[in-house]
Write a structure and sequence with these properties.
The complex is a heterodimer. Chain A has a domain of 86 residues: Rieske [2Fe-2S] iron-sulphur domain (Rieske Iron-sulfur Protein, 3-layer Sandwich), CATH 2.102.10. Chain A starts with 8 loop residues before the first strand and ends with a strand. Chain A has no helices and twelve strands. Chain A is an all-beta fold. By secondary structure, chain B is an alpha/beta fold. In chain B, strands 3-2-1-7-20 form a five-stranded parallel β-sheet, with helices on one face. A five-stranded parallel β-sheet of chain B has the order 9-16-10-11-12, with helices on one face. Chain B is globular. Chain B starts with a strand and ends in a 7-residue tail after the last helix. The chains are: A mainly beta, B alpha/beta. The interface between A and B is medium-sized, with 17 and 25 residues.
Chain lengths: 123, 394
């Protein structure tokens, strides 16, 4: 294992996440992992910063995911809000593929969770 | 265009202001609102805000970093529109002249005359309404909810979770028949009794007993008497269009608009809850009254108002969601056009399912109960499939 993946958590084989699919990781808070149609991997916080909804359930177009509940859009590369009603960005996590496995390193920033939600879910 | 007046400062009005700036409009932007509050989000008023889980500060729709350079005229009710001079007349007598007007006055909660003057009878539309109703949701209190539509159902669910004893009265029709059809409406209504709410279908109010200004109980036509500490009247909303009378702007159930939100008065568009846009699939005007329409319609209407209408037809279908008893319900499409409903995932007994509505072989709607991921995927397919159909179904 390289030094780069030392700090990283092994998620699953890349073969288990097809292009166009997403998965929710039950971390605290949960993380959404996306494999885009174009073949890129992105990981962001799974919970929309506006209200409780899973972005892994969202619609991905290019490098953007749209919240399934209220259509807020987040840039998968930066976590920034591209369309309201969300105001605050989601965190972006580092993803790498090594020997066919997906590895993830969680961001050390403070997450922006929606009102009434903690890293463990509902208050 | 030098001055744009937006009448209504909730989601639709704010979205119109954002769209105007995004389109490069750099003139005066006037935001007129009858409530004193800056734009806030209404859906939590029957859910987390009513439950006391989130405070007022979380409801703000504005981003503190955005600068719309708008002039806010809040707590000012519009009472008339002078279409000839394109001036909005306010309750205080002031005339606000503009080159373009966006009507985004939303809707008001319907009331019932039997309850007039009673202080423990509420409606739920505004932040102030929710603050007042919230005070009544004490453990052990008895709440009577009239109307089992989305608001009534959500308040019943929220109140139940707060330890309130809830009786929910439905009308002669199965709840949500217009939105999701009678069959699925009955399935969703099954949630109430399953979670411990006393749900009475086809309740006919016959008498009201009160003491002073406090309602004590209501009598139903079947002889039942329901005692209550508080009553919520949730029998639907009406488009807030009375102020447009005599203006030349046509109204029926909502402001009559084409599929760009244009009224028949040049320079005047309408969006959100108060607007009935021409719907190509229904072949008539249709007032959605849903949050999502207030979010998405303004961008299209503003383009048309600024003289650059979107050449594409409307791509989004009516969409709404509801949270009841911990279950997320989502619907998109036109249930009334369907001739059959198929359960395509899960099953009805567990209330975890995806139902697809069809007209012949054409998918025309989707209902999800606790299947948000599947719903999200299928909703896109549905929108694409229907966007390709330019004919009227009915």
């Amino acid at each position: 294992m390289s030094s780069e993946t030392d700090q990283m958590m092994r998620v699953c084989p890349l073969s288990q996440l097809a292009r166009g699919d997403a998965m929710r990781l039950e971390t605290r808070p949960p993380i959404a992992l996306f494999h885009t149609e174009e073949g890129e991997l992105f990981a962001i916080d799974d919970t929309c910063t506006h209200q409780d909804a899973s972005l892994a359930d969202g619609y991905v177009e290019g490098c953007e995911v749209e919240c399934p509940l209220h259509a807020s859009k987040f840039d998968l590369r930066t976590g920034k809000v591209d369309a309201p009603p969300a105001k605050l960005p989601v965190r972006v996590h580092t993803v790498e593929v090594l020997d066919g496995d997906i590895y993830l390193k969680e961001s050390e920033e403070e997450p922006n969770l929606p009102p009434g939600i903690t890293v463990d879910g509902h208050v | 265009m030098k001055t744009l007046a937006i009448v209504g400062s909730s989601l639709a009005g704010l979205s119109a202001a954002r769209a105007a700036r995004a389109e490069g409009f750099d003139g005066r932007l006037l935001m007129i609102g009858d409530e004193v509050h800056r734009p806030y989000d209404r859906p939590p008023l029957s859910k987390d805000f009513l439950a006391g889980k989130v405070g007022q500060e979380t409801l703000s729709l504005e981003d503190p970093t955005e600068d719309l350079s708008a002039e806010w005229m809040l707590g000012e009710r519009a009472v008339a529109l002078d279409a000839g001079e394109r001036a909005v007349v306010l309750a205080n007598g002031q005339r606000v002249a503009a080159d373009g007007v966006v009507i985004a006055t939303g809707s008001t909660a319907r009331t019932l005359p039997q309850f007039e003057g009673l202080e423990n009878v509420y409606t739920l539309r505004t932040l102030d309404d929710a603050v007042a109703l919230r005070e009544e949701l004490r453990p052990g209190a008895r709440l009577l909810v009239l109307g089992a539509g989305l608001i009534g159902a959500e308040v019943a669910s929220t109140a139940l979770a707060a330890g309130v004893e809830v009786t929910l009265l439905g009308g002669p029709r199965v709840p949500l028949t217009r939105s999701v059809g009678a069959h699925m409406g009955a399935v969703l209504a099954g949630l109430h009794a399953a979670h411990g709410v006393t749900f009475i279908q086809n309740a006919v109010l016959e008498s009201v007993r009160s003491e002073g200004a406090r309602l004590l109980s209501v009598g139903l036509s079947d002889g039942r008497v329901v005692e209550a500490d508080a009553v919520l009247v949730a029998v639907g909303g009406e488009a807030a269009t009375a102020w447009l009378e005599g203006s030349g702007v046509a109204t029926a159930d909502g402001v009559i608009c084409d599929d760009h939100g244009r009224t028949r008065v040049p320079g005047v568009v309408a969006v959100g809850d108060c607007a009935a846009w021409e719907d190509q699939h229904l072949g008539r005007h249709h007032r959605h009254g849903h949050w999502n329409s207030a979010l998405t319609q303004p961008a299209r209407a503003i383009k048309a108002l600024l003289g650059t209408p979107d050449p594409q037809p409307v791509a989004t279908l009516p969409y709404f969601w509801s949270d009841q008893y911990g279950i997320r319900i989502q619907f998109s499409g036109h249930a009334e056009l369907a001739d059959r409903v198929e359960i395509e995932e899960g099953d009805l007994s567990t209330h975890t399912f995806l139902a697809a509505y069809y007209r012949g072989e054409q998918p025309i709607g989707l209902l999800s109960s606790g299947q948000p991921r599947l719903f999200g995927k299928r909703r896109r397919q549905l929108e694409r499939s229907l966007a390709a159909q330019t004919f009227t179904f009915s």
